[in-house]
Predict the structure.
Amino acid sequence: MNTISSDVIRGYNDTIILYLLLDRPSYGYEISRMIRTLSDEKYVIKETTLYSAFTRMEKNGYITSFSRSAENGKRRTYYSITDTGRAYYKEKCEEWNLTKEVIERFISPGGMRALPKAGN
Amino acid sequence: MNTISSDVIRGYNDTIILYLLLDRPSYGYEISRMIRTLSDEKYVIKETTLYSAFTRMEKNGYITSFSRSAENGKRRTYYSITDTGRAYYKEKCEEWNLTKEVIERFISPGGMRALPKAGN
DNA sequence: CAGACATACTACGACAGTCGTTGCAACGCC
DNA sequence: GGCGTTGCAACGACTGTCGTAGTATGTCTG
């Protein structure tokens, strides 16, 4: 098992995508590549998942889209993050820290039961 | 935001439940209480989610059930973890470490962009 | 110049897990 | 007798992901 199952990361796809838009607009294929690369091939987002996330997030006002032709003349749909999107991203980051802390109370490092220590 | 949204923890409900069965059999209501308590009220699993998890996991062979009456004579359905369940739990623990590492590459501590450092 | 491959995106229906709601039944408590 | 807690089951709705398929352009290779 060296890849991540999708239902685990579900709920963070949007966050991941928004992260990659923080600095500059980008488009589907590039984002897909970046996720793959930055995760060392451990997570490869499905195209349908990605594009449906775009649609959903645009509807929610987290991103906006515009069409632009690339150097070679091909059309691309670029997405930019909005202020709402930035706020949402930040929220999710905070939520992540909480979630991580909570889940780890139910996770044992080696798959063995670790009894809660005092001062936990 | 001081509670966890469900789609974030989705994919770890089974793991959490199995964790609580590692030492001894338990039943729905008690597990629900334990999750609530151990998470400091930050995560409260829905009843329907919990009981449908039981059904699913029993079908998958991760747990087995038996009925027993409590002190007061009320009937309860207890669940025990199986060896398959323990193996699954262990797997999920390992997967968690990987997932955590990957997600954190897309999370910035204060919601601000942290550029990847060399040697990352 | 044909065919393969990468790029870039859209549409459709299926599926799994969660959730809201409802209902029921037994017990304790005031 | 009504209310809250315990303990569970059944139903249908909804959301996000996924498999599949299709379209279209550009590049590379033989």
Summary: Chain B has one domain: 6-104. Residues 6-7, 10-11, 13, 46-49, 52-53, 56, 72-75 of chain B lie near DNA strand C (CB under 10 Å from a C1'). The radius of gyration of chain B is 18 Å.
